[in-house]
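Narrative progress, year one. The postdoctoral researcher (J.K.) led the effort to move from monomer predictions toward full complexes, under supervision of the PI. The following entry was the first complex the group processed end to end, covering 422 residues in total.
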Amino acid sequence: MTAVPLFDVHAHLYAPRWYPARLHRYLEEDFLRRTNIRQGSPDPGRAGSLLGRMLTDSEGLRTIRIMDRAGLSQCIILIVDWGLELGEPAASIETIHREILAVCRRSEGRLIGFAGLDPRRPDAPGLLRWASEECGAAGLKLHPTGSWTLDDPVTDRLVETAVDQGLPVLVHIGRTMRVLHDQHAQPHALVRLAQRFPHGMFIAGHSGFQQYVRFLSMDVPENVYFDVSGWQDWIDTISDLQRHLYLLLRAFPGRVCFGTDSPFYTFNLDARELRWATLVRECVELAPDELQGAARSILSGPARLRAAVHSRLISQPERPA
Amino acid sequence: MTTPTIADLRSGVGDGDARVAEIAESIAGFLRTETNLLDPTLLNQNTNLFQSGLVDSLMMVSLIGFCEQTFECELRPEDLVEENLETPFALAKLLSASRAQ
């Protein structure tokens, strides 16, 4: 039987020039800390080089290969703007958008690019309009893990632009890397933002990881959706996934999306992506009758989200850099 | 047959097939130690590392790091795909070919 294709709403492309050097150093340190290797542990320099080679996919070719192997039909590629917080990457924020969104445009609809902007950027709303109208961004990614909040006036101005343009907004919620913090990436902050923009569409990135339970006791507006990317880091068995995913589905039927956060959990290893996709598919198959409809919508993604991003897909000739 | 030393493996002593088998055994040995396998027969040169659940993403990156350091080579991103990594023997073939280039 052919597996139903999955729509991955949360992934990234990596190339060292698109991310702050401090982030790459953190990834190296985190890798060395998490691997307690006794034999021939790679030295930090070698580990950094190896991680860079594992993660790098500047043309999206490895991502598409993995998607084919894991049965993912489409993948939303999120640009992340940590430049003001961690130091600017080698490429400017405009170049990052131009390059990543060009990769998405060349993918014939397999990769769908979202802009990623720190609202404190000078003329962030203008940058978003440019990324959407000129480069084909189909949404906006916010990563409120630094010195700004989802309640700031600059954030409202950027989100207002996204909503005016019909762009979904995916917001990182929950724990993050040690060089950042999650103080402003909390469920209640996203709920307040969604309440201020009732015509917008918001996705709680990672559903807040284990903090998804906090959404269950809140009055969450209908325009908030949830993705389960990163859950593979703390859920390893079908029974655990059933327990947590069914709780989320019961509370928010039709609003839960599949996600991988590739390549940051799997280092572009296709077997690991396949394992997560298989686990989610099995969980959908095993869903109790009353949850079957809601569970199946995880596979293809909520109709409203699909409609929003597909309406933005543009197939236009490459614009000169 | 005497067990090859790391120096032998690095210098490419032995014929091709035997060398691949020796590298594969070295890889399996690394994994047996790092995964704390109580029963070493559970992991051989042809064990599927992904399906067996013995190796997660971090362990796979560590394994590649061990191989690059031990066999003094640098694998290309396009080589780091499932077919080349799924068993110790497959990875040994990749390393052997990489060293031959």
